[in-house]
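Lab notebook page, bench 4
Experiment: in silico fold of construct C2
Operator: M.H.
Input chain length: 159 residues
Purpose: comparison with the prior construct
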Amino acid sequence: MRFFEDLKVGQRRDIGSFTFTAEDIKRFAAQFDPQPFHLDEEAGRNSLFGGLAASGWHVGSVCMKLLVADNQRLAQLARERGEEIAVGGPSPGFRELRWLRPVLAGDTISFAGEIESLRASSSRPEWGIIQSRNIGTNQRGELAFSFLASAFVPRRNNG
C-alpha cells in the first residue's frame, strides 16, 4: 500500500498471475457457484463456454487475493527500508464488473491495476479516494476480466 500523495493517475501495477486448474475450479464451484459448467468437464464442453469454466466469482476472488498479497509485499519492502507503512482503508465498492472471456481449466490469468482517478475525501481529510481499473488478461493476451474499484487510501500527515 502506498500513501495517497505517492500515487499518480495512469500508474500501473502488475499484481501477479494465477493458473486455474480443473481441481481449483471444481473446488471453488462446489462451495460457492455450483453450476454444471463449473463442476463437470462434459457439461462445460457442452456449454456456451466450450470447456470447464471458472466461476467469475472465482476469478474475482483470485484477483483480491493477489491484491492483498501484493499490498503485504509492498508493506514489507517499506518496513525493510525503514519507511512508514501506509495502511489502506475500506473500499466503498466497485462498478463495471465484466467477465469478458471465459477462464477455462489451464488458463493463466495475469492481473494488473491502473489508477484512473484520485481525489481527496471531503468528509475525511486524512484519506484520499482512488479509483483503479483492475483487469485480468489470459495467456493469449486477451482481456478476460475487468472492474473499476474504489478504495480509501491514507494521506501522509493526515492530509
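Observations: The mean pLDDT is 95. The chain has one domain: 4-158.
Next step: discuss at group meeting.
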